[in-house]
Design brief:
385 residues, alpha+beta, 3 domains, two-stranded antiparallel ribbon, 15 helices, 47% helix, globular, Virulence factor, Vir_effector_SfrC
């Protein structure tokens, strides 16, 4: 981290502490703020989310991203930028090394990746026997991906049932004791961010407009006090109770919970080698949501180890770090190169329930939502501007 980045991170932290004091004063002085209290707290939360993102971004290296439609020459550009003078792109895998272009990157001319690949110099500390570093999606990232595919890949021709929607939220709220503690790995600010994401990107959908008054006012405060199954019942109202989506959310969040909801995790080299079974290849997502399949062990920095299917690990991976053994250009001293998966056309189906009965269609929905969302996430987190 440069001196300027360190100063920015410290300024963000100081501002967050100031906002925390402001929030405390607003809550302690309801008579002084009157009816403006809720609006002031919402604005404070919005500013806090932005400051956290700025602080997190300042702690990472500057990056250049390559994003575009599938089959548009991105792989050729990445190879030209990252390979060494011999045409190789050697990456460190513990004590060993592999050529990313020849040994890891999927072969063939089809669009073949479903995650972001970060090319960087140097290598951070990793658990023994787990040299492959991953950045993981969060529980709410999974929700956003499912929301993205539901509204971008499906046409919504029916008018939402307002009474049924309100009744479902009422039933879930009544099931929570007044003194129930917050138990989710996210907070109300994160729920407000989810609300902003859904509203900002899919406001044209009639059901999203109804969510504004019938769902979000209680969902933001309710979600974290619900048990996982009830939380899934709350979130599935965002995708009109498409049960395969809900089951996938529960399956993936269960893996994250077993890991302790970390931002990063680590895998053995078998996650990437041989490349025909690599988690970088979108073909690995086939069978997502089904039992069985090849298992991978995933480790965290604090020592947790969990076995999950290869498809689940691929689905939960937002970013794969490729630590280059050689410096292809001076700019890599201060800048990382991000290779985004190729943008895919949206399905625009009229009947999501029917589509989900087709073999392997669930992973196609998830993939399209994930590819679109990853680019949005990196922009929202200010890693790309």
């Amino acid at each position: 981290m440069t001196t300027e980045d360190q100063r920015l991170a410290e300024q963000c932290e100081a501002s967050l502490q100031t906002l925390a004091r402001v929030d405390g004063w607003i809550r302690s002085n309801p008579e002084a703020v009157g009816s403006s209290g809720e609006a002031l707290l919402r604005e404070s939360g919005r500013l806090a989310r932005a400051l956290r993102k700025e602080a997190a971004t300042a702690a990472r290296k500057m990056c250049v991203g390559v994003f575009g439609p599938s089959q548009s020459g991105k792989s050729y550009l990445i190879s030209a930028l990252a390979q060494d003078a011999d045409g190789s792109l050697l990456t460190s895998l513990g004590d060993a090394s592999a050529d990313f272009l020849q040994d890891i990157n999927p072969a063939g001319g089809k669009e073949s990746t479903g995650l972001v690949t970060r090319f960087t110099l140097g290598q951070s500390e990793r658990p023994p026997l787990f040299p492959v570093k991953l950045r993981l999606l969060s529980e709410l990232d999974i929700v956003k991906i499912l929301v993205n595919t539901y509204y971008a890949d499906c046409r919504h021709l029916t008018v939402p049932d307002e009474e049924a929607l309100a009744a479902r939220v009422d039933a879930l709220a009544r099931a929570v004791p007044p003194d129930a503690l917050w138990q989710a790995p996210f907070d109300e600010n994160d729920m407000a961010d989810l609300k902003d994401y859904v509203t900002r990107n899919f406001r044209a959908a009639a059901v999203v407009q109804k969510l504004e008054s019938l769902y979000w006012p209680r969902a933001v405060r309710l979600a974290g006090r619900l048990a996982p199954e009830d939380r899934a019942a709350l979130f599935e109202l965002l995708w009109d109770e498409a049960k395969p989506f809900t089951a996938l959310y529960l399956r993936l969040r269960t893996v994250l919970e077993a890991l302790g909801h970390p931002d990063e995790a680590f895998c053995p080299t078998t996650a990437l080698l041989p490349r025909e079974r690599s988690i970088i290849d979108v073909a690995t997502l086939r069978g997502l949501g089904q039992d069985g399949g090849d298992a991978l062990e995933v480790a965290t920095q604090n020592g947790r180890r969990v076995k999950a299917s290869r498809a689940e690990v691929a689905a939960l991976t937002a970013e794969l770090t490729i630590s280059m053994r050689h410096r292809p250009d001076d700019f890599f001293e201060h800048t990382d190169l991000l290779d985004f998966p190729g943008y895919r056309s949206r399905l625009k189906t009229d009947d999501v329930a029917r589509e989900l009965t087709k073999p392997d269609q669930l992973h196609e929905f998830f993939l399209r939502g994930k590819v679109a969302y990853l680019f949005e996430r990196y922009k929202s987190d200010l890693e790309l501007t």
